[in-house]
Amino acid sequence: MKDFYENPLVTRYASKEMSNVFSPNSKFRTWRELWIALAEGEKELGLNITDEQIKELKDNKNNIDFELAAKKEKEFRHDVMAHVHTYGEQCPKAKSIIHLGATSAFVGDNTDVILMNRGLKVIKKKLVNLLDKMANFADEYKGLPTLGFTHFQPAQLTTVGKRATLWLQDVEIDYNNLDYVLSNMKIRGVKGTTGTQASFLKLFDNDSEKVKELDKKVAKKMGFDKTYPVTGQTYTRKLDSEVLNVLSGIAQSLHKITNDIRLLQHLKEIEEPFGKKQIGSSAMAYKRNPMRSERIASLARTIIANGLNPAMTQSTQWFERTLDDSANKRISIPQSFLACDAILEIAINIFDGMVVYEQVINQHIDNELPFMATENILMEAVKKGGDRQELHEVIRELSMESSRRVKIEGKSNDLLERIIASDKFNLTKEEILDIVDPKNFIGRAPEQVTEFIDEFITPILKKNKELLGMDVTLKV
Which of 281, 315, 326, 412 is catalytic? Predict the structure, then answer.
C-alpha cells in the first residue's frame, strides 16, 4: 500500500500524453534545451563559446540527475541554480557558459510558455475529434423531432440534432478561442533580470543589435516566431489567465452539455454509453447512472474554479515581479490542463456511443403535442368555415378535460381523440393527424444543422484532418 498522496488527475483521469507534457522530465529537458539555444545564439553572435562546449551540453541534455538536483536545491533553496550546478557537473567543459547572462525566469518562464503551448496542442487535437463526433451525431439526428424545453418545461418542438448543434456551437466557439490564443503565443525570450537586457548588453559590449538578435535567435530555436517585446522579470501573467480562460470555456461548455445529457437520461430519451459489465449502483442493480457525464461535470468545476487563480495572480503582481505567483502556477496550470484533457476524452467517448431512444421521445411528444397543436387545428377549422370564438371555447373545454385525465387520473393525453370525435371542427381524422405530424412543428431545425456543420465545422475538420481518428480508452 502506498503511503503518500497521488494526484487522481494523473492516476485516474488524464492521458499519459498530457501527463508527459507537464512531467519533470519534460520541464527540465526544456530548461536544458533553452540553455543550449542560449549558448548557440551567443556563440553565433561572437561570444567565446566553442563547438565542443555546445556538443557536451547536447550530449547530456537528457541525462538529468534528479537526485543530485534535489540535493543541490535543498542546499541552495533555488531550483534553477540547483539544475545549473547539476548540469555543470555533467558538462565540466561547458560549466562556465551555462546560463550565461540569464536570470532564472529565462528557463522558468520560457519553459512555462512552451509547456502550455504543447498542452494546448494536445487539447486542440482532442477538441477537433470531439467536434467531429458531435457533428456526426447532430447530422444523424437532425430530423428527429423532440420536445424542446424552456425552464425544463415542455416547449415547442426542436430536433435531437438541432439541440446537439447548440452544444456543437459552444464547442466551436471554444475551438476558435483556443486557436487564437495558440497562434498568438509568445515566449519571454532573452530579457535579463528586470527585463532591461542589461546583462546581455554588457556581454555584447553595448551592441544593442546583437542583443535584439539574440532574443530572436533563441525564440526561433525554440519554435516561436515572436517574444514579448517588453517584460519585467517575467512575461505578463495575463497570458496564464488567457490560457486558463480557454480551458475554463471548454469546461463550461462540456458541463452544460453533460448536464443536458444527464437530464435527458433521466427522461430515458438519450443515454450515454454503458459497459456490458458496468455497475450503476452497489445496492440498486437496475440503475444506469450517467457516470461519464457526472465525471465531466465534477472535473469541469475544478477547471472553472482554477481559472480564477491566474486572474488573481496577474492583478496582484508587484512592479517587475513578485514570487507569489510561483507556487500557485505549479498547481493551477498543470492541473487545469490535465483535467481539461480528461473531460475531452470522456466527451469523445460519450458521443462515440450515445444511444437515442426514439420511441420514448415520440411518447413524450404525444403527451404534449396535442396541446401545442390546438392553434394549428383551430386555424384549419376556421379556414373550412368554422367560427373562431366558438371553436376556441370547444378546444379550451376539451383541453381541460384531457389535462385532468393526464394530471389527476394519470392516463394518456387523449385530446386528439376528443377533437376527432367532436362534430364541431369539420375536419377529417386524416386531416387532423396530418396537422399534428411532429415534422410540421420543427421549423428549419434540420436545415440549421446542415448549414451550421457545412459552414463552420467542416472547414475546421478539413483544416485539421491530420488530427482526426484518435481512439479513446477510459481508465475508469
Answer: 281
